[in-house]
Amino acid sequence: xxxxxxxxxxxxxxxxxxxxxxxxxxxxxxxxxxxxxxxxxxxxxxxxxxxxxxxxxxxxxxxxxxxxxxxxxxxxxxxxxxxxxxxxxxxxxxxxxxxxxxxxxxxxxxxxxxxxxxxxxxxxxxxxxxxxxxxxxxxxxxxxxxxxxxxxxxxxxxxxxxxxxxxxxxxxxxxxxxxxxxxxxxxxxxxxxxxxxxxxxxxxxxxxxxxxxxxxxxxxxxxxxxxxxxxxxx
Length: 234
Prior knowledge:
This protein is α/β, with parallel strands linked by helices. The chain has two domains: about 1-70 and about 200-230, D-Maltodextrin-Binding Protein, domain 2; about 75-190, 3-Layer(aba) Sandwich (D-Maltodextrin-Binding Protein, domain 2).
């Protein structure tokens, strides 16, 4: 079975595929990873049976996908360990990512963003920037891993990634900043008290059938949900 995943969903997609193959040894799941917009296009083109998406892009000219939320994800604000603030908030983040605040505590701040089509970028900018544009001086990275690596190497860097990536080894080299007094934990994401959160969706073109249907039912059932819940810890 071909599965396409948004970059943010990669750690979860790999864990789900591995767990599913163990109880369905006759099934091999092939995973391709893109940003959420491209992953949706690949699904619509018939090049995958199932997608795990971090954002659903509505297009009035295209038929709506079958989709269902299967997990909630937080968008963690990650900073270089030397970045001179211990927590942040929506107004503070907006000022940084609009370029209105360019230094803090004598250190130059570098906003680090994702590329167009990233579900994390769409969710972050929707919550933080609203109708405003990000500053043209923001560093744009093509993946969650690249954001973490750049933030870890750049004093004053401020970026954002899915919390699913906080268990990656490279994430040990960045600091997660509380937003509005809250850290993105499994509890604060699930109860909505962490403000930068969004659902992740499993999707197919039309109602799922055959192997895609069985996989979707498993992901939405107790076994798949147990995998999704476990991966929320970091």
